[in-house]
Specification:
38% of the residues lie in helices and 26% in strands. It is of the alpha/beta class.
Length: 375
């Protein structure tokens, strides 16, 4: 059987793209790298309404395992400075309506992948492959695809942050009640995403040497240090979350702002982490990748009947659209990183005053929430 498009990388972005293209009647090959034995992904994602709608459209949304976000609370040096809430509180809605109205929904990476995997089982136009095959168009989707992309002439442009991310799953004594919480503490960024009633997913961005030290601690010592973040101020981690217990291993990876210089060429195109990465403090990495999927699938699906799937006009239109979106989000993420990781007391004081002023400007906060929701 002829393969119209070969996708290298079968993470969330690659699987979603395969399903979206197969729904257009195209025959898709999905290359699956060998699975690392014993490797469990401990990450959870904050999924925007637009990303959720895309996953629903390809039957890859784990409805029963998704938790709506009521709002976001931001702490700076243990002091709450700004709080964003969903336009409509999910408290009075059923689970489905709450997800649709929430500013975001929290889902484990493994649960999204499992739902997509089940959808792939019922997609006869998708062939799972162990190695790439000849096809008019190859799509590089995941971070490991960077090596493949460099072989076809794209050059990575990266600016490493002096930070590494550390992630794990936790349980907390105090229920999170749908709040996503973020602490900025002496240059570190700690993000907590809540699931169920007491479950949390943590991403702690810190100096690489500190990440290595945190990885070496026992679970009990790690949780003690985590609960002490913000101590002495009004809103420490321990005060808002209570006692914490590790529910998974801890994982770490380096952080950088990066993209490749061009995202398409003769017979190939890049999407997701193969094309770009950014700091996790905005929680938009996966949403940007799924935005790539929606854009590429739309441009291919709306092409003139006489154009091939690898027509340069189609690929360049996709590249222009998504580069512009990544530039906007990348600049915003980078600016926030520079502002909130600055340790100088004068900068910290000015920052706290500015965010507390923002907290009093309800119309501006509502606009920020709509932007986060992709509206």
């Amino acid at each position: 059987m002829k393969t119209d498009i070969c996708i290298l990388g079968d993470g969330i972005v690659g699987r979603t793209l395969a399903l979206a293209l197969a729904d257009q009647g195209l025959h898709v090959g999905l290359v699956q790298p060998p699975v690392a034995v014993g490797q469990v992904d401990v990450r959870a994602y904050s999924v925007t309404p637009a990303s959720r709608a895309l996953l629903e459209s390809v039957r890859g949304w784990p409805q029963a395992k998704a938790s709506p976000v009521r709002g976001i609370q931001v702490m700076d040096q243990g002091r709450m400075t700004v709080q964003f809430e969903s336009p409509d509180s999910p408290d009075a809605m059923d689970a489905t309506d709450a997800q649709k109205e929430a500013m975001a929904t929290i889902v484990d990476a493994a649960d999204i992948e499992a739902a997509l995997n089940m959808a792939l089982d019922y997609a006869p136009r998708i062939t799972r492959l162990q190695a790439p095959v000849d096809a008019p168009l190859k799509v590089f989707c995941e971070g490991k695809g960077r090596q493949q992309v460099s072989r076809v002439g794209a050059t990575p442009q990266a600016r490493p942050y002096e930070q590494a991310a550390l992630a794990c799953r936790l349980s907390a004594d105090i229920p999170h009640e749908g709040w996503a919480r973020q602490w900025f503490d002496n240059g570190d960024v700690l993000g907590f995403l809540g699931q169920g009633s007491h479950q949390l997913s943590l991403v702690w961005s810190t100096r690489p040497e500190n990440a290595a030290r945190l990885l070496s601690l026992t679970d009990e010592a790690f949780c003690d240090e985590l609960m002490a973040v913000g101590d002495g101020a009004s809103h420490s981690v321990g005060q808002l979350l209570g006692g914490l217990v590790c529910q998974s291993q801890r994982q770490s990876w380096p952080l950088q702002l990066s993209q490749i210089d061009h995202w398409s060429g003769p017979g190939w195109v890049a999407a997701g982490d193969a094309a770009h990465t950014l700091h996790p403090l905005t929680g938009q990495g996966l949403n940007l990748g799924l935005g790539d999927v929606a854009s590429l699938a739309r441009h291919i699906g709306q092409r003139d009947y006489w154009r091939d799937v690898a027509d340069p006009k189609i690929l360049r239109a996709y590249e222009r659209e998504r580069k512009a979106q990544f530039a906007k989000m990348g600049r915003a993420s980078d600016a926030l990183h520079g502002l909130f990781t600055h340790r100088h007391p004068v900068v910290t004081g000015a920052r706290q005053q500015a965010t507390e002023a923002l907290n009093r400007l309800v119309p501006l906060k509502s606009w920020v929430v709509r932007q986060a929701m992709g509206q």
